[in-house]
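Protocol step 4 of 6.
Sequence for TetR/AcrR family transcriptional regulator (Streptomyces polychromogenes) entered exactly as in the expression construct, tag removed. Do not edit the line below.
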Amino acid sequence: MSQPVGRVPQRRNARSNRARILATARQELGRNPDTTLEELARASGVVRRTLFGHFPGRAALLEALAEEAAEALQAAAAAGVEATDPAERALARFSLSMWPVGDRYRMLLALAQRDLGMERVGEILKPARVRVTAILERGQRDGVFHSHLPPAVMGAGLEAMTVALLEEVNTGALEDDGTRTAVATLIAAGVPEKQAHVVVDEVAAVVAAQALAEG
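Step 5 output, structure tokens:
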């Protein structure tokens, strides 16, 4: 049976509208977590009916953003670390690879407890938590990181620090491309400050070169 004329363009337009709505939601909810769906529709350049056709309510929109964040974090956690890296370089690479994802979805932090629930946020963050715990465990075993806390507990502390720094970016109190947070992460894990700066600078240069080659 032949496909009705216009059906493919309509589907393409629907995908484009959905992507534009989600991109606008990331931006607008980052500025104001109380932004309404009607305001998001206007900011997205679509009519209210179009937005509600994709997302029947606020919960559906936030869940779509959560799904995006989960996929992006999982990809970053899987690709951001080389197995042969020394632990301090692995942690720096992990932090740098996670920062763009965290920066992109930082508005979820403001909405997490109220709208998504911490259980859902925990599901989103699980791949990153598993990966960083393994890095910290290896670093402790190699004598690179402090060993006064279990790896998972140290990871929770580093995560909390990263969340706090993301929130400072969200309020405009801090400007960071991820390198300052990566340095702070290494220092908190037990790497001397001077060495932390050197490691992060080296890893950031490698990450930038790889991105340029892939782009």
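Step 6, annotate. The first helix runs from residue 7 to 31.
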